């Protein structure tokens, strides 16, 4: 009986050390993973709101997809970060690019959900505004170049 308790304590201690090492190793990407989680949560909340507004029923298998998405998104960022640091590819910022792309996809989905909720095409309006501002900036640059 005494030896079983000693084994349990050392086993738990081993697992706690492994978990601590895991957390310490991936600590540099914690902020990226947290931001992805926030974007995913906002997308989920806005998607639920839009679905309820449209009169759809909530289905657990659709909500389960959110958990799978977060799991696979996190694995993608962790894998790219490990590859960057193992093979000294820090100049690529691959994990940042992947996390940024994932957040952009979620942001686009949030805008689509806002459009469903408000019936206002917010994403289209933002793109038109960006296009107009970009065109104005290009025109200003080319006009400045001609006047010299």
Structure description:
The chain is mainly alpha-helical and 148 residues long. It has one domain (2-147). It is 86% helix and 0% strand. It has helices spanning 2-26, 30-53, 60-86, 94-118, 122-147. It is flat, with a radius of gyration of 23 Å. The protein starts with a helix and ends with a helix.
Give the SSE layout.
Elements: H1 2-26, H2 30-53, H3 60-86, H4 94-118, H5 122-147
What key attributes describe this structure?
86% helix; mainly alpha; 148 residues; 5 helices
Can I get a quick summary?
This protein has 148 residues and is mainly alpha-helical.
How many strands, which pairing sense, and closed or not: the largest β-sheet? none
Residues in helix, %: over 70%
What class do helices, strands and sheet pairing give?
A: mainly alpha
Order of H and E elements: HHHHH
Low-confidence stretches: none
- DSSP summary, beta strand count: 0
Please work out how many helical segments DSSP would assign: 5
Radius of gyration: 23 Å
Distance between the termini: 91 Å
Q: Estimate nothing, just give the exact number of structural domains.
A: 1
For the residues shown, what is the average pLDDT? 87
Beta content: under 5%
What spatial form do the alpha-carbon principal axes imply? flat
